[in-house]
Amino acid sequence: MFNYKKQIKFTFIVLLIINLLFIFSFNALAKTEVYFSLYDDPESTIIKSIDDSKEFINIAMYTFTDREIAQAIIRAKDRGVNIKIYLDRSQVNAKYSKSRYFINNGIEGIRISSNNSIMHNKFAVIDNKIVITGSYNWTASAGERNDENLLVINDNNIIEKYQNQFNNLWNNKYSTERYQELISKAGIISLPTPGTSKETSTPSNKTININTASLEELDCLWGIGKITAQNIVDYREACGGFKTPEEIKLVDGIDNKKWDKWKLDGWLIKVK
Predict the structure, then answer these.
(1) How far apart are CA 124 and CA 166, in angstroms?
(2) Is the pLDDT of residue 228 over 90?
(3) C-alpha distances in angstroms, 111 versus 58, 115, 149, 224?
């Protein structure tokens, strides 16, 4: 009897040790990376995480104006990553918001918060592998002028909590009216209300006059960043404007691949 009790106690201790080792090992695998703007270049970390995505990106962002991050989102969409972007109501009309850019580049997974105050979240869940969060809005100011922080977390429990909160916002706190206002601001004839069939949608008006387009409008074209957009403006000013749409291929940073992609995406390039 004594040996039996001793054996049970020994077994209990062994199981306890194994359980503790498992917990410690699991926690050791969890990792949080910390970045500070003006010192650690959080923008590059965000872009790399987006470029590494394979399945989905769920974003809840108070202010989204960063051009390079927006272009990374479009690249992800083009390779088949499922994109959902949940924005504060201010992003419908904000001058430099990328909400209209996303609409014009075929991202249908956009919803606008129904909160009449502000939706102040700043996070993204990528592939259920990481959460990106912190004070860092996805804006040029956050990376170039403000003192901000960014966390990249791969703890499964934390990821699950953020994903659950995103689902709550996405499914329960969105405004159909504000979404339709965004569609109107983006110059789209008609798009389906979130959750409705794609078959009822009407093609978007993808027309751009390269002799009059602003830098922001040029940025709507696939593969055009702020440098190439400025090259287009510099070229047309130096040459007295483009004579034909195809002449844009003479601009530094533009090649046949980009031209063909614009045509494939349904863009009508005009000079008059």
Answers:
(1) 9
(2) no
(3) 11, 12, 26, 25
User: Which token pair is 104?
Assistant: 């014009």
The answer to whether 143 touches 42, Cβ cutoff 8 Å, is yes
Contacts of 156 (CB under 8 A, 6+ apart): 30
Residue whose tokens read 């130096």:
238
Q: Give the burial class of 200: count Cβ atoms within 10 A of its Cβ; 0-12 exposed, 13-18 middle, 19 or more buried.
A: exposed
User: How many CB atoms lie under 10 A from the CB of residue 9?
Assistant: 10
**Whole-number average pLDDT of the chain:** 85
Give residue 196's pLDDT.
42
- Beta strands at 110-112 and 82-87: parallel, antiparallel or unpaired: parallel
Contact 240, 202 (CB under 8 A): no
Phi, psi for residue 47 in degrees, rounded to 5: -60, -45
DSSP 14-42: HHHHHHHHHHHHHHHH--EEEEETTTS-H
- Closest by Cα among 64, 164, 69, 60 to 115: 60
Identify the three-state secondary structure at position 255: coil
pLDDT tens per residue, range 116-140? 999 999 999 999 999 999 999 999 8
User: Any idea which residues carry the catalytic annotation?
Assistant: 120, 122, 127
Query: pLDDT tens for residues 4-60?
Result: 555 666 565 656 666 655 555 444 556 899 999 999 999 999 999 999 999 999 999
- Residue ranges of the alpha helices (H) in 131-255? 140-144, 156-172, 176-185, 215-218, 226-238
How many whole angstroms separate alpha carbon 5 and alpha carbon 51?
58
What's the predicted TM-score (pTM) here? 0.62
